[in-house]
Amino acid sequence: MVARCSQFLLVLCLLFSTSAFARGLPELTDLIEQNSPAVVKINTVERNRTSRNSIPPRYQQDIPDIFRHLLEPRQRQQRPVASMGSGFIISKDGYVVTNNHVVDGADEVRITLTDRREFEAKVVGTDPRSDLALLKVEGDDLPVVRWGDSEGIKVGEWVVAIGSPFGLDYSASAGIVSAMGRSIPNESRENYVPFIQTDVAINPGNSGGPLFNLEGEVVGINSQIYTRSGGSIGLSFAIPASLAQDVVAQLKEKGRVDRGWLGVGIQDVDRKLAKAMGLGKPAGALVGQLEAGSPAEKAGIQVGDIITRFDGEQIVTQGDLPHVVGRTRPGAEVPVLLMREGKERKLSVRVGALPSDDEGFAQSSVTTSSDVGGVLGLVVEDIPDNLKQRLGVENGVLVKQVVPGKAGANAGLRSGDIIAQLGFEQVESLTDYDKVVKKLPKGELLPIRFFRGGQPTFRTIQIEES
Q: Which residues form the signal peptide (predicted)?
């Protein structure tokens, strides 16, 4: 009798647990049924593909005239290239949102609805930096979706994607938000999108499709996946709806997107740099380079400053700064909070407009002691004139040799690096270098700024106490 009661209680417990678990899962059928009609399948055709120069335009001026004809684009007879993606209708008058990479280079764009209606779509505008595109179709009684608040979603919330993975029309998949504000640079190493990371199954063909919250509102646009197989492994990334709405409004109004521009080269702050710069913990974006005449330079921002707040928003990592600056309207004057030589400073900067054809920064001996390399273990010399011209640098010293086991080697310096700053002192020549080295304290972490392969980098260096 006791055994039968125990079995009965166990069955009741299992049934209760299963029921409770089921009640904890979201019911998605109504959401999918109501919103699928506004999700579209996009088919594109590229009839004539032009070969593209592999050499950037700013370097083509160095090509001898006799070889310039090799750089001219040539038309080749090719079969039309077809591709597909997803999108969604945002207004009754036929505006459709998708990814830029879905329609990039297309000669023909057609959308198909769940009711089998097909429309030819016109590309109103594209924005490669955010990977968004706005299309327009002419039709009656078009279903639409609602925008949601992507700023309010939290890690762990349920989200639903609808699209056409591998051409399988109007497929739905669900998961949770895995992380917010992911920084993923594009092919041009630009980073203007704080992506929403999810574990929703996203595959080729889902690109440009909507990501819904449980209220049936679009909180993101599916854009990228991380994969080793070509399919979903549970790492997908969506463009936040708040950013997308601003981009769409600008594309609709003027066919282009204007972004804020500061004109700085930045890097992350690690634990050692934070200590050397007077920060309690690693935070902010460290300014490694300033573009001449940029808004940052005009505002008084200096190389070596650590920007911790911009327009009231906290800058935790270097990736946060492009996100905030990019969505600031050009011409706006905003407050900037930064750390300089261990002290907090407040500045005001008038944000510029990001150039449409964004040019990068101009990238960027005698032994110093009878003891090879001196206290830093570095053999340096003035930069030869021909190297200055080739690298586009004017000041600094060239590292010729790094002595193993000494401060320079421990800081990760290599032969060929160009040192531009030691501690908080600028190094313009070998004479400056010798003077600065003599004053460096022992046993303290100090910032060092150098160029490697044309890229500025901050690290820390420490002279061991004897």
A: 1-22
